[in-house]
Amino acid sequence: MTTSRLKTLTANREQPYSYAFLDAYAKRELRRKILKAIAVPGYQVPYASRELPIARGWGTGGLQVTLSLVGPQSVVKVIDQGADDSVNAANLRQFVARMTGAATTTDTLQATLIQSRHRVPEERLREHQTLILQVPDPEPLRRIESNMARARELHADAEYGQMWLVLYEQLVRFRRYMAGASYPMMVHGRFVMSPSPIPRWDNPKLHQAAHLTLLSAGREKRLYAVPPYTDAYSLEFEDVPFEIEDQRQWVCARTGARNKFMNEIPLPDGGAKYEISDTGYADKLVERAIDGPEANTLGETYYDDEGNFYHAGYLKPPRRPA
Amino acid sequence: MLATSNRRVVPLDAPRLVTQRPLLVAEGLVKHYGRIRAVDGVSLSVYPGEVLGIVGESGSGKSSVLRLLNLQEDPDAGRYTLDIPAWRGMDLFGLSRFDKRAVRTRHIGIVYQNPYLGLRMSYTSSGNIAERVLLAGERRFAALREAAQESLSASEFPLDRMDDVPRALSGGMQQRVQLAKAIALKPALLLLDEPTTGLDVSVQATVLDTLKRLQRERQISMIIVSHDLGVIRTLADRVMVMYRGKVVEVGLVDQVFEDPQDAYTQQLVHAKL
Predict the structure, then answer these.
(1) Would residue B15 count as lying in a domain?
(2) Which run of H or of E encompasses A206?
(3) Which residue of A has its CA nearest to B142?
């Protein structure tokens, strides 16, 4: 059935565009590079980043990976900072659908390919799902080694000591880890990677995850992967544990939910209200509040309503404020 | 008369320089930069706890020798061994990039004339020292703080300023941070490349005091490169005079400076204002 559908989609030789926009050779190269990235978790594989009808920096890396993996049976979801409805997410989704005939969705559970700018969905991803993260800067060592040739040597030698220098400076100056996004992670005990600018909240979700995560930087022409069920630890000192954002007191103004990653919305009176950042998930919660529990299926989330992470013991208890 | 007395002769210990193996042995170092032969067959040795001074005019190859000994550059010819565990007797120039870095981190400290070469100017002073300790594998924050404090107080740096960035410090203090970074892992060998040049005379004196005290207390072997004979006279046990990439004279400091044999050394000693 798949092949017949593919045939109908590609049969028309008059069509000026290749299936999924990229030509067959480009897609083949990308797939080979993706396999290599999966084989060496966290290693940045160089690839020939193609021109696309969007500008560099708007998700070209993620889009190329999506286009090389998408098929007629795929269900595509595109997220931009948690939202499905932002201009960039809507445009990318529309483009993929137009070029491939793939179905689109905003429901995390139904999607097979999820291209995301800077968020991992709240609902747990499953084995058959692939998360594609757009990466502006793939090099975690840039802060301590501006020479990229030297940085690659450091990766090759697994010489990562200086990454802790950045953490040291943060602790000395601010008494806590300050990186709010792109918090570096050690993958499979070998390579340090930048998990793209996802909030610290999302870092633990990559550890021993059921799904495949692919990270791709179009401008920098590098892609890397966190394969399913692979260790991924955020860098930390032995005596100062890594912490996620403390949002325990925040309540979503739309849904009344707690312990999901929130956007802070400033109010004119100087206060703030909070909204769940993952709009696909929030919409489902709202639907259920109106139409009852049979309105949709709600997946299990990475953090439960009390804020406990689903891998018990992975996150160490937060430090007492010093 | 002592000579005729029949008292039993107590055998003297053999001199330390005979029984002790030198910490550092470098033989036949040669280094070209393009057509220029910057280092031309230099051999030297340093014994444990000894301070070797290298003097010579600008361009005589002193700093090039130091860069070779710091494993920063590869020579065109020569052999270099350090008497340190795990690498005893091995030619360090033949090591892999990874091993070279390990030797440099753990066993060699260096202080540059220009603190911008040795320090991260926008990171805290304590962080600069912590970097060394991190490279050696320490991953506990409290231990890093402790190591930074210990090392900075050993180099007589005021601890209330340990979290200031070097950019905001005076020249003398920057040199002290460099020194603290160099000695953080208690290296066997300390290389000093004109450590006090550019400091005013009083600051220079206090930095030299610190160096002398450290050398006495920790018995670190040092190689100090300077064109200031006063600095060499204060610190060094032996001195090596270089001219156009070659060693022209080696000997005890007093001996060389009081009774120079080579024509160039004579000129150098007399050129002192």
Answers:
(1) no
(2) none
(3) A239
